[in-house]
């Protein structure tokens, strides 16, 4: 900014010297409130979709983060933005920050700030409709009647019957005005529009000072007679000449009478107390009726123990864990039985010895009735860990078993070849292989027994109601069933070959 302009601004501020004072400060009976649904301002004025919350706009208007450009500096444009909600109190204050800029020495047409009974529609009066009902404040840039009195800020209230006299800048219709050049100022200009006790006062900060409170009086109109309720709007229009008409901020505050507010609050409190009393009375009556009923019908008032009827979340989770344990235990019992049968068959067929203990362990399947608690959880976890380790050993043993069976099968095949060639048969190799096979299966069975003995000792299962036929299949169960099938298949395949071999040997 150039030096002389800075000096001018300082001198102007000193000369004006007027500082705006809020009505709530001068009149302590007024309580000020910000109306966010009747306001907009940057830096996030518009949503990402370009809309302005609680406002609608159209025509040439475009909303951005920092401002709403009502018209661009293009000829014959009309734009508008209107509030979606009404202003319906007796005292209010509008604080509007705007900017009118253009390349020409003279601009057109101008801008209007509205408070009308219905939202305006696009029209001929600074972008809005004529014959409006309510207040119009015009920032009239173009001097239509050539009286050298523009730009001007003019106030006109219309009852819906008057048509604005454009040719004479509405000079015979306006109720108040001040001649201010609001175009092309270094800073945005600001208007404060007060409506207090049915009197309208307009103050202006003419955009040559950064002092937010450096306002000067534009005009004051007593008993202006505005509608009780109205919509707020800003419109603008360009003609043969054009300006950018931008609104940077539109802030609305309302003022409430402190005494009336206190009375309302008192009424509200009385109403709340009344409702509270009614509720307490109803509650007492209900308790009395319940007591009377229990007295008259003692047989129908069995008390309910919720702990017995309802299962807690803890009990439910623990019951699921124990059910899973029980399923694993049952599956291992089945494996153990199958393994014993298989071992018996091996011993009978191979005739490699007698009196081998079957090794079937007695299984304690009784489930204690008491419900396990926190300390039992640790025991369940430990049991699971042991079981996992045992099953891993089980898998390793199966691998060894498979390898030995493969070796045995290879030997059998070789012997078949020898038998075909009328060679003597050496049964020592068969005996050795079968002994190894039997030992391995015995080892698996022993490990299974260890696992089975651990589970009932370490886990105290609660009495489970209606859990009988659970269809859940755990991962351990799945694994051991697969292993069982593998063992049976290998055993069957091996001894079938063995039988064939014997048959051929004795033919
Ligand atoms: Ca004009
Ligand atoms: Ca004029």
Automatic annotation (TrEMBL):
| Main location class | endoplasmic reticulum
This protein's GO cellular component annotations are: COPII-coated ER to Golgi transport vesicle; endoplasmic reticulum membrane; endoplasmic reticulum-Golgi intermediate compartment membrane; Golgi membrane
Q: Where is the L-type lectin-like domain?
A: 32-255
What are the GO MF terms of this UniProt record?
A: D-mannose binding
- Locate the coiled-coil region(s) and give their ranges: 265-292, 391-418
What SUPFAM superfamilies does the database record attribute to this sequence? Concanavalin A-like lectins/glucanases
Q: Name one GO biological process term.
A: endoplasmic reticulum to Golgi vesicle-mediated transport
Tell me the leader sequence span.
1-17
* Entry's transmembrane regions: 473-495
Localization per Swiss-Prot or TrEMBL: Endoplasmic reticulum-Golgi intermediate compartment membrane
Write one Pfam family the protein is assigned to. Lectin_leg-like
Superkingdom per UniProt: Eukaryota
Alphabetically sorted, this entry's keywords are: Coiled coil, Disulfide bond, Lectin, Membrane, Signal, Transmembrane, Transmembrane helix
Question: Topologically, how does it sit relative to the membrane?
Answer: Single-pass type I membrane protein
**PANTHER family attached here?**
LECTIN, MANNOSE BINDING 1 LIKE, VESICULAR MANNOSE-BINDING LECTIN
Name under which the protein is recorded: L-type lectin-like domain-containing protein
| Species, as recorded | Rotaria socialis
């Amino acid at each position: 900014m150039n030096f002389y302009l800075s000096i001018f601004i300082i001198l102007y501020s000193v000369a004006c010297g007027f500082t705006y004072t809020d009505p709530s400060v001068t009149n302590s009976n007024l309580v000020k409130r910000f109306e966010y649904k009747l306001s907009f301002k940057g830096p996030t004025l518009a949503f990402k979709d370009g809309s302005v919350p609680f406002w609608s706009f159209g025509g040439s208007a475009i909303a951005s983060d920092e401002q709403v450009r009502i018209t661009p500096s293009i000829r014959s444009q009309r734009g508008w933005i209107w509030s979606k909600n009404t202003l319906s109190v007796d005292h209010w204050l509008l604080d509007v920050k705007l900017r009118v800029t253009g390349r020409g020495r003279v601009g057109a047409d101008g801008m209007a700030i509205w408070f009308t009974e219905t939202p305006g529609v696009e029209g001929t009066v600074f972008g809005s409709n004529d014959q409006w009902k309510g207040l119009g404040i015009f920032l009239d840039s173009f001097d239509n009647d050539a009286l050298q009195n523009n730009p001007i800020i003019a106030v006109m209230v219309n009852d819906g019957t008057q048509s604005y006299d454009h040719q004479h800048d509405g000079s015979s219709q306006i109720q108040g005005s001040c001649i201010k050049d609001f175009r092309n100022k270094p800073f945005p200009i600001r208007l404060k529009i007060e409506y207090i006790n049915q009197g309208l006062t307009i103050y202006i900060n003419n955009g040559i000072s950064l002092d937010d409170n450096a306002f000067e009086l534009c005009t004051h109109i007593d008993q202006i007679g505005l509608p009780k309720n109205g919509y707020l709007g800003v419109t603008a229009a360009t003609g043969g000449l054009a300006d950018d008409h931008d609104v940077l901020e539109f802030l609305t505050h309302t003022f409430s009478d402190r005494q009336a507010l206190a009375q309302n609050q008192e009424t509200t409190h009385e109403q709340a107390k009344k409702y509270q009393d009614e509720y307490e009375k109803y509650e007492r009556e209900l308790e009395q009726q319940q007591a009377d009923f229990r007295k008259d019908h003692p047989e129908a008032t069995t008390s309910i123990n919720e702990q017995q009827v309802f299962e807690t979340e803890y009990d439910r989770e623990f019951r699921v864990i124990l059910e899973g344990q029980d399923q694993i235990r049952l599956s291992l019992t089945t494996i153990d039985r199958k393994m014993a049968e298989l071992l018996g068959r091996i011993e009978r067929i191979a005739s490699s010895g007698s009196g081998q203990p079957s090794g079937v362990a007695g299984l304690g399947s009784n489930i204690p009735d008491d419900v396990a608690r926190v300390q039992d959880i640790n025991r369940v976890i430990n049991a699971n860990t042991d079981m996992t380790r045992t099953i891993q050993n089980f898998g390793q043993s199966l691998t060894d078993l498979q390898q030995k069976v493969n070796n045995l099968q290879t030997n059998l095949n070789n012997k078949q070849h020898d038998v075909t060639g009328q060679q003597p048969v050496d049964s020592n190799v068969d005996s050795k292989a079968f002994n190894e096979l039997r030992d391995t299966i015995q080892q698996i069975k022993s490990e299974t027994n260890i696992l089975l003995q651990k589970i009932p000792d370490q886990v105290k299962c609660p009495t489970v109601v209606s859990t009988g036929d659970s269809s859940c299949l755990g991962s351990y169960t799945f694994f051991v069933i697969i292993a069982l099938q593998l063992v049976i298949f290998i055993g069957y395949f091996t001894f079938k070959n063995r039988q064939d071999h014997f048959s051929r040997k004795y033919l």
